[in-house]
Structure formats: structure tokens, C-alpha cells
Amino acid sequence: MAKQRHEVITFKAGETLASVLKNIPNRSLFIRNAILKALDNICPLCQGSGILNADQKEHWISFENHHKIKKCSDCESMYIQCDFLGKHKE
User: Fold this and answer.
1) Domain range holding 21?
2) Rounded-to-integer distance, Cα 61 and Cα 58, Å
3) Position 75 in a domain
4) Rounded to whole angstroms, how far apart are CA atoms 1 and 12?
5) pTM of the model
6) Collapsing DSSP states into helix, strand and coil, what is residue 67?
7) Contact call for residues 2 and 8 (beta carbons, < 8 A)
């Protein structure tokens, strides 16, 4: 079995964030878990950039012809509702 190689990655943190992180017993584990969780929740279209390129925008325009962006009245989360499927509870 091959040994997994690790790479050290550093980042700058402001004074407040650095101060808070100093109080966490296993900072490396905390930061790794936070990054993995964030990667699990990125937008599947823009991949976390927050911007659609021109081709993605064309696909989105086609997609939104039969989909609406709605706000759930229970949890207030935004979601996409397809015109052809059952309605999400509001």
C-alpha cells in the first residue's frame, strides 16, 4: 500500500480569524474539514466562482424557461422549482 503524500498549504488570516483559530485544539483538522464541507456545497454551475461564463449563461437561459427560483416559506432557503415536476411545499 502506497503511503499518502501530504502537501502543506498556507493562507493569510486577518487578526480576528487568527485569534479565533489559536483557540481551536486541532486547527489543521478543523480547517481541512471546513474546506471539505465548503467544497461539498459549491454551485455545480459556476464551481464557486459566483460567475457564469457566456456558454453557461446560454445554458442557464434555456434552463430557466421551465424553472423558477423560489423562496421556501418554511425555511426561507432559495430553491429551483421545475415547471414539469410536483410543487415544492411552500
Assistant:
1) 15-82
2) 5
3) yes
4) 35
5) 0.57
6) strand
7) no
